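Whiteboard transcription, Tuesday session. T.W. wrote the structure tokens on the left side:
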């Protein structure tokens, strides 16, 4: 009898174990994962550089004249390039789900060729999933995050007004201030949890398409069913990914800032994105650094 994989032999991983397993898997398959994400990211880098160097410079978008219109053109151009890049990257990484699972279960080597082959096999459905995630899930998560932050801020300001008011010497002021901060951070935590709950319901769409060979609609239903109770794991992975991106960006941006400072550019102006102070080479280098951080995080 052929050797079969038994699902019962694997326990469900907790949040900490999941992050640890992700780190070990990333370390063991670093080259294949980087190669899988690199086509979209490097194409995005080239397009961003071409847009900044040829389009923005030729249209003189750094001019103070018509600053609002120039900023809008810059935002739309770079935003479209990044969106298309993200579509392609999410599609390819969705196709890698099958290869990743086979690597974990059957110890089959994870290679760039197998990832691309799996992506090509399910390209239309994976592309639909990527478009759904970027045009529906991501904006909805952003709205939840902004609304949650706005509500948390308004509640905190209102509590501070009630606490301090016209009686700054109130002996309970410190206690009320602490209570206000606790309410503020509790609402932020609730907002973060709602965003993770939303993402957990759709996070398994690529796996359902690549592994179970389901249509996009059936994969969405399957992901919603399997994603129940996965908010904690998504929160752990999201927190770990955010820290990783920030660490990589700091590693790349700090030397860039030092070089700009040695060249005589004011760091405050660079951080403020002053169009009259930021040179073209810094814009290009900063975009490349950001794209590389995304590449390592993907």
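and on the right, the sequence the group agreed on:
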């Amino acid at each position: 009898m052929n050797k079969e994989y038994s699902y019962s032999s694997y326990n469900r991983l907790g949040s900490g174990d999941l992050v640890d397993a992700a780190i070990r898997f990333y370390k063991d398959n670093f080259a294949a994962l980087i190669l899988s994400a690199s086509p979209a990211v490097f194409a995005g880098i080239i397009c961003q550089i071409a847009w900044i160097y040829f389009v923005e410079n030729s249209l003189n978008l750094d001019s103070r004249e018509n600053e609002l219109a120039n900023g809008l053109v810059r935002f739309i151009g770079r935003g479209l390039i990044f969106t298309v890049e993200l579509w392609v990257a999410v599609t390819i990484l969705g196709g890698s789900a099958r290869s990743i699972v086979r690597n974990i279960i059957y110890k089959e080597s994870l290679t760039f060729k197998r990832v691309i082959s799996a992506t090509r096999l399910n390209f239309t459905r994976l592309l639909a999933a990527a478009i759904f995630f970027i045009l529906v899930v991501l904006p909805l998560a952003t709205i939840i995050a902004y609304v949650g932050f706005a509500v948390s801020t308004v509640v905190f300001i209102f509590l501070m007004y009630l606490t301090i008011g016209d009686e700054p010497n109130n002996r309970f002021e410190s206690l009320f201030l602490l209570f206000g901060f606790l309410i503020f951070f509790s609402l932020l935590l609730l907002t973060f949890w709602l965003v993770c709950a939303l993402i957990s319901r759709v996070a398994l769409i690529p796996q359902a398409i690549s592994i179970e060979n389901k249509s996009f609609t059936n994969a969405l239903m399957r992901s919603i069913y399997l994603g129940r109770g996965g908010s904690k794991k998504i929160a752990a992975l999201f927190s770990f990914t955010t820290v990783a991106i920030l660490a990589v960006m700091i590693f790349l941006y700090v030397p860039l800032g030092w070089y700009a400072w040695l060249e005589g550019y004011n760091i405050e102006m660079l951080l403020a994105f002053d169009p009259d102070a930021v040179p073209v080479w810094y814009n290009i280098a900063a975009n490349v650094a950001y794209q590389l951080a995304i590449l390592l995080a993907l």
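Someone added at the bottom: Residues 1-11 have pLDDT under 50 and may be disordered.
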